[in-house]
Amino acid sequence: MSNQAKPIPSAPEYTGVGAPLAELDEEAIVAPAARARPIPRISIQAFCENGATAEIIQIASEDRRLAKAHVSVHMGGIEAAVIHYQQNPTPNLIVLESSLPPEHLVSELDRLAENCDPGTKVLVIGQVNDVMLYRELLRRGVSEYLVEPIEPLQLMEAISNLYNNPDTEPVGHVYAFVGAKGGVGSSTICHNTAWALSEALKSNVVIADLDLAFGTTGLDFNQDPMQGIADALSTPERLDEVLLDRLLTKCSEHLSIFAAPVVLDRDYDISVEGCDQVIDVVRQNVPYVAVDLPHLWTAWAKSVMLQADEVIITAAPDLANLRNAKNLVDLLAQMRRNDSKPRLVMNMVNMPKRPEISIKEFESAVGLKAISVIDFDSETFGQAANNGQMIEELNAKAKPAAGFRDIALAITNRRDTHVAKKSSALAPFLEKFKLKL
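RE: above sequence
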């Protein structure tokens, strides 16, 4: 344990500096799950006294944020830890649960410190909520102190704060866009939302097109890049900030694309590790990454979806979309227990002469409320696609343009103050009534 340890402030979040304050809230509402950022490849050993705490740590160890960390859970508390490290090297982080009174806890930690490597961090879970104890523990080199009972997200946030330097820019958010069925317009939703996000927040956004053979990102933005994401995926270990800058294609002041090659004379063998490595490099350099996932089911596609900060499912109102969307929602609920539910976007609604499932019935069946419902509009979308433009570029007053901004604000937990400030005609009278009270 280091004797120079200091309280670790919470890692900052991107708040969209430069966002037009007339249009957006000054700060994002940071969801609890968003505060716990991905944790690097470290070793964590926990020594618990209670089975309930051990179970919570085990649940946290299975979360996507700790996917790179190696976590082992032991029973016996501090006493077991002291005995263990007399014979074994210490890991990057030791998590200790203790019900000892403050004076005994401090003395036991002193015993543990005799066998701790200088670089090892210690996180203590105790039962005494006392600021003097907290300060004493920090003075003796303990990195963090949590008071029971704890939740998996609370533990992950505490670990994240220890290993994500608050003095550096935080890791960017990854949004995975997936279609419930082929041809439902997931790529169109992804591209327009990313563009709206970059324009609304005035923050850098990268679109990663993982449909290597048939991706439409280049077409939709009227670009024909010579290099792109396939070059990064072929040798992911070479990708760094300099190479990333060369491979990205800039489409506007704040939006760049990682375009797909869209050639069929080669095979695309993507590994889970390579895909994860490329996305990690991108998210280290920009605050927002929109991943355009193709409609296929492979190990790497599944991994990207499960590791993303937010999943946006695009669906059309028919039976096949309903079945597939429900399957996706169920899988995500099972595999991402500590994350918020995926977002649902209903696209191509009210198509002429097509029997449709009502939006209300669709939402009820999948257990999600749509964050946006976009009507079928072949003329507007067709013209934008042919021009290589986004909908808002083509016609800022078009109804879908407002829908894409709604999606962008929803997935970043922001709200449009224009909408929030709308009030009824009685508002002035109600305000006067308040002043008189």
